[in-house]
Amino acid sequence: MKNLQAIFWMVITTILLAIVTGMVRQLGSDLPAPVAAFVRYVASTVFFLPLIFKMFVTHAESQKVKIYFARGICHGLGVIGWFFAMATIPVSEVTVIGYMTPVFVTIAAFFFLGEQLSKKSVLALAVGFTGMFIIVNPSGTGIQTGQLTMVIATVFFAGSYILAKQLSFSNSIIEVLTGLNAIVTLVLAPFAIFFWQTPTIDEIIWLSLVAFFATCGHYTMTLAFKLAPISITQPANYLQLVWATLIGFIFFGELIDIWFVFGSTLIILSTAYILIFAKQLQKTDK
User: Fold this and answer.
1) Domain spans, the chain
2) Are 76 and 188 within 8 A, CB to CB?
3) What pLDDT, in 10s, does the model give residues 101-150?
4) In 10 A of CB 4, how many CB atoms?
């Protein structure tokens, strides 16, 4: 049952994070990437202010604090890369490169967390990865600065998610989210100051909405991490590309072609396959 619940919450996560992508696209801000990222995380941190002092001053263990800071640094650098990529290359390319993260996360979980890397989970990842590339249909024009930045960002995000999984073993979801938002805000602050450009009221409102949906997405993702191994939940991550493309079609008039239909079918099949796999594991556990 926990495996199925984890997959459910990961699917909800993909919907919430796809909404975040759509909002950033709608924002179309001229703000420098570090400033936009900083404003977004300041808005999130406000939600958790009452817990920050309690966590980091009154009773936090030194080892846990180190993990919180390591995760915050990884995620902060990943966020800067993501915002920069969103401003310099097409959203579809940002999304497809971002889907290297589930692969990195699953492999890292095998090496650093001792999770089992079954043939079935590898197959599901491979099928979803193939569907992702079919949807984007990338050309061989060589890597651009924005693309390289996004590749590096995926590595940082993978590190962040592995540390989140480690924290989820002995910390509440709210504590994990509080630590993430507080430390990422600190990490982004010097970059934001260096590139500072005062945001407009509209930009602050949009970035606050981004913060709300992103925080909800991180909550459901951390909940999924607490319930099941990463190798079970990561294949469902590919659904985010389907939702993001549908948002582009409905709200921004982006066309859906045969490659999207074919690639989406593979992604949905990979998610369905891992759901069946999760049921088999559940029966085995009994």
Assistant:
1) 2-285
2) yes
3) 777 787 788 887 777 777 777 887 788 778 777 766 655 554 578 778 88
4) 16
Mean pLDDT of 11-29: 86
Q: How many CB atoms lie within 10 A of CB 283?
A: 7
**Buried b vs exposed e over 151-182: b needs ≥16 C-beta within 10 Å?**
ebbbbbbbbbbbbbbbbbeebebebbbbbbbb
Q: Which of 8, 25, 185 is nearest to 90 (CA)?
A: 25
